[in-house]
Design a protein that fits this description.
Blueprint lengths: L1 H14 L9 H17 L22 H5 L3 E6 L4 E6 L2
Antiparallel strand pairs: 1-2
Amino acid sequence: MNSLMERWIQTCRTELLDRTLIWNQSHLLHALREYESFYNEHRPHRALEQAAPRRPLPAPITQQAQLTHLEVRRRDRLGGTLHEYRRAA
């Protein structure tokens, strides 16, 4: 369990805390809640074949016509520190 927590803390530190100026405890707690949500619901994980822990892997695109008209939208979180990318419907 220690190795898992060490990895999460290292990832949180490099992706969030090294890029963010934290003002106080409530700001830190808000940033950590947002990052936890991002980490579990959107961020791809190599061990899960690029799926997020709480989200199933999307169906692959097999038709060439779908690839030529692929539209991707970006959503910024925490003032642009974290980015979510999704296919537009």
